[in-house]
Amino acid sequence: MSPKKKSFYITTTIPYVNADPHIGFALELVQSDAIARYQRLAGRDVFFSTGTDEHGQKIWEASQKEGRDVQDYVDKYAQNYLDLKKTLNLSNDNFIRTTNPEHIKAAREFWLLCDKKGDIYKKKYKGLYCVGCEKFITEKDLVNGRCEFHSTLTPEIVEEENYFFRLGKDREKLLEYLSVQKAIIPEWRRKEAIDFVQNDMEDFSISRNKTRFSWGVPIPGDDEQVMYVWFDAFVNYISTLGWSVSAKASAGKPENKENLFEKFWTRGEKVQTAGKDMVKFQSVMWQGMLYSAGLPTTDTIVYHGFITGEGGIRMSKSIGNVINPVEVVKEYGTDALRYFLLREISPFEDSLFTMERFKEAYNANLANGLGNLASRILTLSEKYLEKCPEIPEKSDFTEYFSFFEKFDLKLAVDYIWNEIGNLDKFIQEMEPFKVVKVDEREGKELISNMVLRLYTIARMLNPIMPETNALLKKLIKENKKPEQPLFPRKE
What we know:
Elements: E1 8-11, H1 23-41, E2 46-52, H2 57-65, H3 70-82, H4 84-87, E3 94-97, H5 101-116, E4 120-130, E5 135-137, E6 142-143, E7 146-147, E8 156-165, H6 171-178, E9 184-185, H7 187-199, E10 204-205, E11 207-209, E12 218-219, E13 222-227, H8 229-234, H9 236-239, H10 245-250, H11 260-266, E14 269-275, H12 279-293, E15 300-304, E16 307-308, H13 325-332, H14 334-344, E17 351-352, H15 355-384, H16 398-405, H17 409-430, H18 432-438, H19 440-460, H20 466-478
Parallel strand pairs: 1-2, 1-14, 2-3, 9-15, 14-15, 16-17
Antiparallel strand pairs: 4-5, 4-8, 6-7, 8-10, 11-13, 12-13
């Protein structure tokens, strides 16, 4: 694949900081990180962002339950998400917090742009409100009287005067945006978005009255209302790049040569990742807001499924059935978790995660698979080769890279493990450990071939398992066997 010159921007959604990180968000982080690492390998300038959503009713209520000052509360939990950079070995370029002064300034400026366009108005509203979703819902959204995504919470009937955003006026623009196949991956989520715009889309509330809660971005010119958390949070995707009206005005001037917003949002390829419950928020509401503000829309939004626990029940903080990725990493290591999330979990569909299933995959494919293969090859190499064979500068990864272009990370990792299987089969059939004892020259040629193939596998691991990538390449170049198993078997 020839390197692309266009810059590349990728961002995750930003989670509420009302609990510790869980495995569902770890999935989104690792998927986004693998895509960012691939794009860097392809020769592109990359900006990868993640962060935390720190306003809203859920945050306020959670802080009150703990008896903490709300700012102290969000500071504590935001740090736990910041720590995931090391835990998951992430390569993100920025971590945006919605309580940052720069973000608050950007959110208020964005509001003023939409208001100036005539897309913000005030009206009284009464309806069902799900605190878990931080949004109004309708009767048809209910399952057994509860929100389909927060089955432990009872929706409240709320009546108040709020500001609304005129989403309905951009119906045709949004349908045109969604007509582009790459706007949403996978395809069935794009059809879901189109159906929503055609049949269910309405103007939406973008503020809350301070009499209910005050933990939000103040609205310009109205001391009685704060921004609805979704309106504020959406702006993080550009505030992380330093966007503001003043920054936009100075773009391209000598004092602002490295304007990140211009480079990555205006001129770059823009990709967002999100869970499947975010389709109408990210691909409709956020895009409508961008139209209103006169800014470019997102190029592609990639939606993943939910991670489920026993019985196929979605893992969620509100249900309390989550797995903490930090605990998994402590026992198995970062690359083991990255492997499982990128191969054993579907990139688009719901997938089961249990520690039993994780352990089985770890032993079969890492301890007995890659780890054992590397040990066998490097033991032979250290014993029979004087030095590492000459490594070609480049390898042909056209087919492997094609899976990243489709955002199908499971197929990319499957491709690597297919190569691992082929190399293991080569050893079984050719038996280089026997050949080298009767024909040293031929045996060394077989071992050299195996070492080079292992190095190619190590190269492909770069975006998937970066620690293993670096360690394997180091051992190969030094012509040394591992001092201890790469992936110790778990009993």
